[in-house]
Write a structure and sequence with these properties.
The protein is built from ten helices and nine strands. With 297 residues, the chain is an alpha/beta fold.
Length: 297
């Protein structure tokens, strides 16, 4: 969807139109060894397989750090196998079909490619049994382990019920992996160490402390290929200033470089630009802009 979003944005801009175009996403969840793994697994099942994975805020990559990997994989596999796949008019159905036959074929093709490239297929959802609907567009919950950033199942937006687990030796390695991904919708984290340090260094996405985003929340910091348009830039600036304000409240010493400016005069210019972009969008934006001029003083 990213090439389409870029095309729509460029075409609209050429005609003088304001455009906000949302493209592809590859949302990551970083799970630390000190996380409550049973809770994290329950949350990941909903975040990864809800709506058959066909939503832009679905978590599709789990970055398991250190000793969290094996027990988290086992918990996810147990829960994924218990999900009932079926049509929406059945009370027992927990996950329905994907949108079209073409979508099903593409998802199954990417699962085949993941197997061919060497990822471990822990739960195979390519041929779920749905009585009375043999020709339906059903793909069951699928779980990969030992994927790598070079594999297609990691690089491409699958947009289906496929959860890909990659492994990292440390939090720093996990953050580097998230930041290197070309998509930048959201990053969520589980574990004390990831919440108290990792969120300040991961540039991709809306950082949360609990592993479940059922509704879209667009407080992103870096958009990369996921979003195009002026509003994207405004949201990125606002979110960065709020993050700096939180660091200041915790007593951290900030420099002008932290705020992305080179001299005190740039603070005033930055505020002026944001005021013009924000227009009359409410008191909360106004308060944020006032904070911007004081944040590093």
């Amino acid at each position: 969807s990213t090439p389409i979003a870029k095309y729509i944005y460029e075409t609209g801009a050429r005609h003088g139109k304001r455009v906000q175009a949302l493209g592809g996403a590859k949302n990551h969840a970083v799970v630390m060894p000190d996380a409550e793994l049973a809770f994290a697994a329950d949350a990941l099942i909903g975040a990864g397989y809800g709506s058959a994975g066909e939503r832009c805020m679905a978590v599709s990559v789990v970055v398991a750090v250190g000793d969290a990997a094996d027990p988290l994989r086992d918990l996810l596999a147990q829960r994924a196998r218990r999900i009932t796949v079926g049509p929406g008019d059945r009370a027992e159905s927990e996950m329905g079909p994907v949108i079209t036959c073409a979508a099903k074929d593409r998802i199954v093709g990417l699962i085949d490619r993941g197997v061919a490239e060497g990822a471990s297929l822990i739960v195979d959802g390519r041929a779920p049994s749905v009585s009375g609907h043999d020709a339906g567009f059903f793909v069951g919950p699928t779980l990969f382990d030992h994927a790598t950033p070079q594999m297609a199942i990691y690089r491409e937006e699958i947009f289906g019920p496929v959860l890909v687990m990659v492994r990292a030796d440390s939090l720093d390695d996990a953050i580097a992996m998230v930041n290197a991904n070309p998509y930048a919708n959201e990053t969520v984290s589980a574990g004390y160490r990831s919440r108290h340090g990792g969120n300040q260094r991961a540039d991709s996405g809306a950082h949360g402390v609990l592993l479940l985003r059922r509704l879209a929340q667009f407080a992103f910091r870096r958009f990369a290929r996921s979003r195009h348009g002026r509003r994207a830039l405004l949201h990125a600036r606002q979110s960065r200033h709020r993050a700096l304000a939180r660091r200041r409240q915790r007593g951290a010493r900030l420099s002008y470089a932290d705020a992305g400016i080179s001299a005190p005069a740039d603070v005033r210019r930055s505020c002026g630009r944001l005021r013009r972009h924000a227009g009359g969008r409410g008191l909360a934006t106004g308060r944020m802009l006032k904070t911007n001029s004081r944040i590093i003083q």
